[in-house]
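Hello again,

I reread your note about wanting to compare the complex against the isolated chains. To keep things tidy I'm splitting this into two emails, and this first one only covers the full assembly. Below are the input lines as submitted, including protein chains and any nucleic acid or small-molecule components. They are followed by the predicted structure of everything together. The single-chain runs will come separately.
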Amino acid sequence: MRGVIYTETVVFAPPEQFAADAPYQLAIVTLEDGKRLTARILGDRVAIGDPVELTETRNHIPFFSKK
Amino acid sequence: MREVAVIGIGKTAFGAFADRDLRSLAVEAGLACLADANVSPSQIEAFYLGNFAGPSFVGQNHLAPYIAGAMGVEHVPCTRFEAACASSGSAFFHAVASVASGMYDLVLVGGVEKMTSQTTPKVTEILAGAGDMAGEGRAGATFPALFAMIARRHMYQYGTTREQLAAVAVKNHSNGAKNPQAHMRKVITMEQALNGKPIADPLTVYDCSLVSDGAAAVLICPLERASEFTSKPVRVRGIAQTSDHVALDEKDDITTFRAVKEAAQKAYKMAGVTASDIQFAELHDCFTIAEIVATEDLGFVEKGCGGPYVLEGKTCLRGERPINTSGGLKSKGHPVGATGVAQICDVVLQIRGDAGERQIARHDLGLTQNLGGSGATAVVTILGAA
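Full-complex prediction:
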């Protein structure tokens, strides 16, 4: 699954259940079919317009990385 | 439909009150409101309560009769409205509809939230429940994160800057410092606002509203009866509530809140006014970017021009259209379920000419904009001198 970063942020103040993950990058990805998905970013930080692809799904959370 | 007037207002101070419970805050605001209109609890025909997450924050359900009974409002319909941060805006909307329809004459509308007894990560988690927990919430989206993503996109599309975001915080803190009931009565500098602790890039702690305890209440009746209770009635000129998708990723364009735009157009039409007629407003600055987007969605400025509008001082206390003279959610505080009704109280105070040190010169026609979640509920109200 591939897409482009529509918007992103880095979360420094997480909710209780994600305390161990912070800081983490969160993004809305525009997929190839035009639909959007809220996902986490693995690896390098991404910016608006960057192409990304799905690398894994963990606990129903999609993780994308820079292509 | 009958015309409706606000005849009483009452608020607690907003803040972190370790020794106060939810009910005592709501009762204090409600009784202050009834005293303001010289009305006794037994005259109230219905009680509408806005509360977002009392069951999660303090473990108490069935809040409307729980609070009403303690105020001496008994044997009448008492109902809680939940619409995230627009809970009491929504309660007010439905209360106005009930009086306009002729069903009731005297209706009390309250809003309350008791948030500070939970830790910040727990508060963050509870607030995240106003979003889509099966999608964005599960991925780790907090509310600051959702509005940070809105800010990022707004910066990308319109060139909005960090300074423009910070200008909202500086302005609202300046106003809140003059409000004796504000949570954080502290003036901040642009430098401080730009260098706050990061919460969700590009938002820092100074871009985020406060986690507060507090309550607010207003009393409404048909305009034709208002003079029985007050010499300074305030007319509800226009009001609308609209909705949109809960999840941010389901919206076509996240730099605008469609629900706010639609509510504003309906409210303007009902009031027979345009955006340019609005002299001042209390806007939902849950995050600094939200106030900037609101000024655009309400038609105060063209799309994309909200950043320069605030940075140039047009919305400060002595500007052409003062916004958040109360200090807004940023400085006055944001007990989420109380915010919508508190905004009504603050506009009524200005229209009456009773805003003290923060009183503005042109105060005949004001607006409130109350936002739920990342734009899934919007309530816009236009209030005018009777």
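For quick reference: Chain B has 13 helices and eleven strands.

B.
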